[in-house]
Amino acid sequence: MFETLKKIAFERVGGTEEELRALGILADEIRKRGLEPKLEPFEVKTFRAGKGTVELAGDPPVGFDVNPVGLSGSCDITGRAQYIEPAKLDYARCEPGCIVLLPPHLNYDIYRNLVRLKVAGFLLVHNPGKTPGFPIIRHAFIEKFGKIPGAVISYEGGRKIISRKDAVVRLHTEQEEFVGTSHNLLAVIPGENEDEEIILGAHADSVASSPGAVDNGSGCVELLGLLGHFAKNKPVRTLRFCFFGSEELGLLGSREYVRAHESELGKVRLMINLDLGGDIFGENRVIITGSNELTNYIDSRNKLRGMGLRVTRGIYSSDNMPFARAGIPAISFGRSGLGASMGHSADDDIRNVNEASLRSMANIALAFAGEMADAEVFPFERKVPDDIKDEIEKYFRERSGDGA
What is the domain range of residue 195? Predict the structure, then answer.
């Protein structure tokens, strides 16, 4: 398990050759377990990590390195710097052409307000103590509102800009954007029951600049472990294993799978998602995007077996979401902790992963998946309640602008 993780722990942005290389490594591992995988391609708007600088005007001027926000284009602009609290964006005012500083998360409402304010650009101030990464602008935002240049700046850089009265900054960025081909890697273990299926998934891509060891090379090797077990132990229900591409670009792989396989989804009783794992100083958790019945079932099982899972019910920003949106209950297994806090940065490397932690999460997921695959009767309804549906729709509106 750990050796395979080492092989795929390199930057593998959706739609790039590196993502395809990682999927090739995973495909070879699937073949070693006796199955023949299938690649399903789909087109994505993607990018390569660029470079940039911010210069704070003064005598002398002060310069900072920044990371261009993915899909925000290249620019050379100058404007007055202003920090705006996200909660105040709906009624904020700023000088047209200013460059706005914001906390590091960009959603639909924030982007809509940046357009309303006619800003020249924006700087996302990164969390202190962590290497800045390369977040993206969702392509749907750009299609609806147009492109605004942006970059990520370190906490220290942002603090120095805001501490300067009437600060004026020059933002210069360069990045390559292109239409690429991403892929979902699929493998099927047929069961005796042809009318009920379970999907098990993990995303195979990483963010730009990140080796993506915890997020989500760990989930991929855990999923391989489950696949290897069921390849030797035939399940009652058919199991479909999915290594999704381009999750970090907006859940594009899982959304494409749901679109392309819509006619087959009626048989799917459950989606099991593996995202984040192997964290040395962490705890295992499960998030149920489904009914109280399913949540209580898992929580009771957790307590009876003393597994030590942290059980919650709600949404989780990963490949579970498109399936839950399609009415399929979804369960996300993962491990949160100190190493996971390095996610979405160059610091998410193999040093933060512990093999015993990988195996503990894989074994928990395997035990649950085995019970579901072989149950005489499926123990809960195929249902996503209205309160969770509302949360799902809110999520897709805020993250992707769907339905806005």
Answer: 2-44+180-400
